[in-house]
Write a structure and sequence with these properties.
globular; 3 strands; alpha/beta
Length: 142
């Protein structure tokens, strides 16, 4: 939920009174393999209508991409989102920093974006809220 709120708050970047100042489209960078799975997951469906995120090609990155688009629309931005494929995470950040894209379609680590070059939404994950680990079966028969 905080991820969605953060994206909605980021709409301040794009919102301005009157249609004349509205962007024609939002250009968002997305890693190529995420984009491929996203297209396979959608299978022709409109990302704005997705409510059930289960099924083939469903993964965190794909779901975040769909939620990104839904949050922009819920926040009142009704312009197209142009997804720009990038070969790597680092390249996506570089393109954002250069101003070739308006946003990243997936979250990035705050420390990967220099303060002076990009605008950041509020943090969507509180310190200590995120846990990463390695998971497997306690006993594996070989």
């Amino acid at each position: 939920m905080r991820y969605v709120c953060g994206i909605i708050l980021s709409l301040l970047l794009f919102s301005a009174p009157g249609k004349a100042n509205s962007p024609i489209a939002v250009k968002a960078v997305v890693i190529e393999d995420v984009l491929a799975d996203y297209k396979n997951f959608l299978n022709g469906r409109n990302p704005l209508s997705i409510k059930d995120f289960s099924g083939p090609y469903s993964r965190r990155d794909v779901i975040e991409l769909i939620l990104f688009q839904q949050a922009l629309t819920e926040g009142g931005l009704h312009t197209p989102v142009i997804l720009i494929p990038m070969p790597t995470y680092q390249r996506a950040i570089a393109e954002l920093e250069k101003g070739y894209a308006d946003a990243t379609a997936n979250p990035v680590w705050e420390t990967d974006l220099p303060e002076a070059s990009t605008w950041k939404s509020i943090s969507t994950v509180d310190p200590g809220q995120f846990v990463a680990g390695l998971y497997g079966k306690p006993k594996k028969n070989c």
